[in-house]
Design brief:
Blueprint lengths: L2 E6 L1 E4 L4 E8 L7 E7 L6 E7 L5 E3 L7 E6 L4 E6 L8 E8 L16 E2 L3 E6 L1
Parallel strand pairs: 2-11
Antiparallel strand pairs: 1-3, 3-8, 4-5, 4-9, 5-6, 7-8, 9-10, 9-11
């Protein structure tokens, strides 16, 4: 079974940076996609970014373009979300998300693109 273990997050001032990590295990093939969603209380989870296992398919939400970057370390089976120029409206619980197909990025930001979820991590940006 696929497992996603997140790390990173925390409290940062507006304009600062944070990096989230998602260590993935249990994929039975090299065909998958990993991304990030975020959620604030009372709202739907919002798809933030996605990258396919061969990096030929990506998604970045308009709200984070030019500020957030998703990258992979295939040797460590880890995906990173580098968040720069953070704003108070980026405050949310961030979830790592994975799917058993590299086509999944094409379906972002829909939650139906996701087969597995990480445990979530809080990111708080103070003004």
């Amino acid at each position: 079974e696929v497992q996603l273990v997140q790390s990173g997050g925390g409290l940062v001032q507006a304009g600062g940076s944070l990096r989230l990590s998602c260590a993935a295990s249990g994929f039975t093939s090299d065909d998958y996609a990993i991304g990030w969603f975020r959620q604030v209380p009372g709202k739907e989870r919002e798809g933030v970014s996605c990258i396919s296992s061969n990096a030929d398919s990506t998604y970045n939400a308009d709200s984070v373009k030019d500020r957030f970057t998703t990258s992979t370390d295939n040797a460590k089976n880890t995906v990173y979300l580098q968040m720069n120029s953070l704003k108070p409206e980026d405050t949310a619980v961030y979830y790592c998300a994975a799917a058993n197909s590299h086509y999944a990025c094409s379906f972002y930001p829909a939650q139906s693109a996701v087969d597995y979820w990480g445990q979530g991590t809080q990111v708080t940006v103070s003004s």
